[in-house]
Amino acid sequence: MSARQFDSSESDDIIIIIAIVEMEAAVQAAAEPHPLRPCSSVHLWNCFRILPNKRGPPVLHNRLQKKGNVSDTAVKDKAAESKKEGEEGVISWPVIDTDQATEGTKVKENNEDSAANQKAKSSKESEPSRLEAVQQAFRHAWKGYKDFAWGHDELRPLSKSYSEWFGLGLTLIDALDTMWILGLKEEFEEAKTWVATELTFNKNVDVNLFESTIRILGGLLSTYHLTGDTLFLDKAKDIGSRLMPAFHTPSKIPYSDVNIGKGTAHPPRWTSDSTVAEVTSIQLEFRELTRLTQEPRYQAAVAEVMTQVHKLDGKLDGLVPMFINTNNGQFTHQGIYTLGARADSYYEYLLKQWIQGGKKEDQLLEDYLQAIEGVKKNLLQKSSPNGLTFVGEVSHGQFSPKMDHLVCFLPGTLALGAHNGLPDDHMDLAKQLMETCYQMYAQMETGLSPEIVHFNMHQGSNRDIDVKLADRHNLLRPETVESLFYLYRFTKDHKYQDWGFEILQNFNKYTKVSSGGYTSINNVRDPDYTSPRDKMESFFLGETLKYLYLLFSDDPNLISLDQYVFNTEAHPLPIWPSTA
């Protein structure tokens, strides 16, 4: 509900509407099936048991009251969830209300449980329903893809059609390991059949090296490790080999685009540069391909990239520019430093390569630690009036309080580093940034984060976050729920699960399409006219729903972070044994 004030003439209507919504929610909850709890092993299908229906309503943290830039839509119209023309296909589900028994608003006098134990008990009881909610969301998204986009790259759910990027079934491949982890056997088997009978890389098509590596190669390698089925390893070998011409450059810094049918590669049409994030975020996958195939060329190619970037001038306290030239191997467009687009996953892969290789590669660790210190020194600030810690950008010496949603990978990465023995203050910073990323959702009228925010730093500001008109879109991105997963896995603080469930509810409320699928939206500031974009990115199934499921699971062995490291598309790859 909007934070605006309303007059007394509206109160009777509001009371009636609230009563109707609560009644419908109660009926819906009573009609829901019993949840399933998956067993701890991701290698076994038939290990489910029916649990009593303990559907615990979510424990939600109220969003901060918004000041200033708020919706002026009438409360009763919002409660009725009226739809604008052109939005008929988007379902608006009411947010599940918190239950008095769950919240413990009134407890019996002889209740011996402490408040902390009560909260933990509440979250534990709600675990099956939250896991099932993710399974239901996946099935709904998969239904849209299967009905209208089967075998194609991405679903356009409103027009009931599809879009092609590479023509390689990106959504299906991205979702393979998600289906396995979620225990969706039927969906997995039909997808596997398509991979076996329809997927071919012998196509005259240009693909982006980075995107095809993290989504296709990473997805196939991950699914091979989870299932043991060599079908996926064979496909991974095929695509990996076809991507290698990208490294045939004068500098050994790879081109961005590869024709996987012709075996040729080239930079994008508009420049001879590649982005730093793209050329330094393919290492986990190619290193693993070498380990599995015993062909050194894959690891050698990506290791050369890291060695060259390590030696380059033009960094700011370990922070890298966004572009690198494929002819001379030098940074270009220097002076802009960000943890957002075009640079983000460079920092992520420094840490994750070090973990993947058994914490033996000191150069990677040194570059990572130096970069984090560079973030603290140059990019870290606090907002006004509430002092949210955020990561901005520097452009030619000038600080900008601009933060991409993409930067919300950082809390999880910092927490992962702290878990692996890095300084304790990394975890402290992770928690602060996690709060900020949550507030990027909570302070929006839809409860969904925009793509980019700007933080207020001036005394006297009445709100911490501003959003420009061009930045109000939400693409169903995973970075915040990814970091929530890491923070919950390492701290066991149930508020991170609660925040994640609130985000899932708002995805259901504002982006779910009745005929199947979820859509990105243009406007997170207006709950009554979100302006759907008619596109479901493959990472919604490959990353967002996967991380939500892992967040809601209390099983630390479900993709153990001591055994697996996730690539930047949420595909888990094994940490190498000490003898590797």
TrEMBL record:
Ranges for region Disordered: 70-129
Cofactor: Ca(2+)
Compositionally biased residues, Basic and acidic residues: 74-87
SUPFAM superfamilies: Seven-hairpin glycosidases
Keywords: Calcium, Disulfide bond, Endoplasmic reticulum, Glycosidase, Hydrolase, Membrane, Metal-binding, Signal-anchor, Transmembrane, Transmembrane helix
DNA repair recorded as keyword: no
Membrane-topology annotation of the record: Single-pass type II membrane protein
Protein name per UniProt: alpha-1,2-Mannosidase
